[in-house]
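Exercise 7. Given the components listed, write out the predicted structure of the assembled complex. Treat all entries as one system.
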Amino acid sequence: MTEHEPHDRLYVLDRTDLQQLFDALRTRGYTVIAPQIENNVIIYGAVDRVEELPIGWTDVQAGGSYRLARRGDDALFGYTVGPHSWKRFLSPPLRMLWRARKTADGFEFIDDGSPPPRYALVGVRACELAAIQRLDDIYTRGAVIDDDYQARRGAAFIVAVNCGQAGATCFCASLGTGPSVGPGYDLALTELMEGEHRFVVAVGSERGAEVLAELPHRAASEGEIELAEAIVAQAASQMGRTLETAGLQELLYRNVEHPYWDAVAERCLTCGNCTLVCPTCFCFTIEDTTDLTGQIAERWRRTDSCFSTAFSFISSGSIRTSAKARYRQWLTHKLAGWQDQFGNIGCVGCGRCITWCPVGIDLTAEVAALRAEDVGQPPAEPILEMA
Amino acid sequence: MATKRKPRLAVWKFASCDGCQLSLLDCEDELLAVTGQVEIAYFLEASRAVLEGPYDVSLVEGSITTPGDAERIREIREASKFLVAIGACATAGGIQALRNFADVREFTAAVYAHPEYIDTLKRSSPIAEHVFVDFELRGCPINKYQLVEVISAYLHGRKPNIPTYSVCMECKLRGAPCVMVAAGIACLGPVTQAGCQALCPAYGRGCFGCYGPMETPNTAALTAWWRDQLGMAPAAIQRALRTYNAGSEAFRKESEAYEHAHD
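Answer.
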């Protein structure tokens, strides 16, 4: 991708022509994954038609609560984020790594030879694009590269969407990950509802430009560009939560023995929901299985959570048996240890862990409470807790 | 090459509905593979043919509710190398453990014309209260795939992949939306052990807790949320905790906390 003047590459795509974008992506061999409503929740799944999007719906979120509501217009992207995140498609929760068959003198691998799927991810929000880039750091920029992730990621076409509103559990503005979509997309849309229903389109890559070239479009006017900017600014002003990031790492490290963790542990269910909905939580475990006959063995990779006792199980047992140890591990790794590992904060401010915690535990509130009772001194011993 | 003797499998029943034994018969596709790998030595639900012990693997269904049961389970333990308790009755006392919260003599007096003939224990108790259990497979009923997994793991000397974390893990794995967060439905999933693939939440119902408490169940925090945020009455909370795994320690204690609470 080459640098470009933003205004040089802003175009307008009419709402009535959006189906042509879906069709162009499908013609190029992509499976289009986009928001849709299932069981009263906006999730991500395969779609063919624009009409399958949650047209006219929005979401009302709070700690431990999510409800859909009518918007009163026909907006296609008039909501924030639901329980799914794109990691489901780029790093599936359950994946077979290999299968082998016993032979007379050993074993042989059975290669299913299927190529990685080609996804066009439509409706990727700013925080979610930042989350995908966190996953890139983990899976493709470390000492070991995850081939499957790299293949899926490399094939993925990203149609980002600028948020026109923020939810009550959103705090991307605190982390600088949104609501305006940053670099890394192929195309980025801003939905304009005033006047003609249309999208201001930014082009972020050559292949994005190639796709747009196949669609009816025109250059955006100054007025349309200002309107798009105002919409995102409005979302930025609506953030329901904030997270103070100044000195965050030091705050968490020096308060590792703070009694406040006990208060959180009283409420924490250790169910793992926060890690499962988090778009950056990446931990997995490996399971080996055999069939009944012992002729076939398989190795599976399965999403794991630092809230399970098996996660920290070593020869002498689980080393994080208390809820306190597990919640502290999760939060401290996400906001502090991650900085040591990857150079940034592991949280993108999407608010999923707040909304989808069954008992509404709020990461931003817990950090604020800890900050209010900061012990102000570093711990006597260095903290050696790994991801 | 000498033919290796197939391990002998026995299936035993105590106070139960037979549903877990049926899970073995329900294996269908896998059943032939199972019988190809083990010799079914004792399984009255399936065959009257009975082979003498000892047995390599005993699957024990049901809870201990009579003095006779308590004696018989010791004999089975002595005759078994590897004993697996299967289902909520065998691992927590089952639905019949509701008697543990009341006076069983009152029940027998109310039900039987001649209660003096009934020789029963005050409590319905899980197998592990009486003998050493090598592995507990949860569920009401058990999941047939988990049963095949336990048998496969035993046959090939590996650890069975039976997680002890919450139902939420399986719910999110299958991509089902949380019924508590998205619909305000009371769900035991966060405090219940996985194993059912989150069957009920995937169909919009709250988890009933068939697999019993997960590894570190915070029932107090969950039920406080039900009461304060979902407006659930104490009696309803107690009923939710007192089903198939009412006798499990975590569910029993929490249900007792709501014992004297008034609606």
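Discussion: Chain B touches chain A through 47 residues (CB under 8 Å). Chain B has a mean pLDDT of 94.
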